[in-house]
Fold this protein.
Amino acid sequence: MSSLFDLLYGLLEPWLLLSLAAGYLPKTIVGIVKRGAWATFGNWSAFSSEWFAVVWTVGGPMVRAGAESKVVPLLQGRVRAGAVVPVDVATQCGVGGTVIEIGPGSGMWVSIFSDKYVTGGPEVKDGKPVFKKGERSRVDKVYGIEPNPGQHPALRARAKDAGLEGRYEIVPVGIEDIAGRHIAKESVDAIVTVLCLCSIPDQEKNVAELYQYLKPGGRWFVYEHVKSHPSQGEAISLYQRALNLIWPTFMGGCDLCRRTEKSLRAAGAWADVDLAMPVDEPWWATTPHLYGILTKPE
Ligand SMILES: C[S@@+](CC[C@H](N)C(=O)[O-])C[C@H]1O[C@@H](n2cnc3c(N)ncnc32)[C@H](O)[C@@H]1O
């Protein structure tokens, strides 16, 4: 009985999120009118960004509450084949050093970069830091690539609360415009993409561009919702595609049907690709996830 309830709730959940977004439309319009920012009404991209920023003040914490038990161990390197594993059997290193976080939004995950989550440090070997498996090291620098200015005040405040002032830098552009900013290619130890690759333009091209910023041996931490997996069946795939006719309009351009694994695998050579649907996700998930870590060759 409870599984029938879970199934129905799972199928209805996207409609609850769409209703939530619709409910915040009047507040968004009133905010724009109060500021006298009339031009926003003639610019869909600006309006949609502003609407989504308002929606995410409520949606973001809800999503974080549901996903924290996955994202914290992910950033510790304690994920294998879609499951959280103990430190002593972890095969990957956690996040540390210099990091690019794509689409941080209002900073829902920024606290995880704070020093309070550090579980170990890199050893220095031949003058190079060697990160330890299953351990999350100190984050020295984060570039938060966030094009939506409506998210920046909350993001800045959360970075400060996490003790990252001076270490967390908001780069106010989209992933497609980071070339020419002051981030050097092959300079970052980790890329973190949590629930953002659904929203970026030209995913395959921009993911491949981003790959070039990883150092040899660098890791890419992924928790993304994606196109339904073949194992979920045709009915879920159809339902997801039907929802996707309206979803991006209400959700800041988010696309439910992204083939993110394909883009990541095609981005460049990998020494290790460990990506899977989380083991506890049901077959009827309408926002099934891609979860895991990719490691660039040394
Ligand atoms: C669904 S929200 C997730 C935010 C955050 N990662 C979280 O989990 O709370 C997607 C984020 O991607 C950002 N985004 C949209 N287009 C982008 C682009 N071209 N480059 C980088 N980020 C983008 C949006 O502004 C938004 O903050």
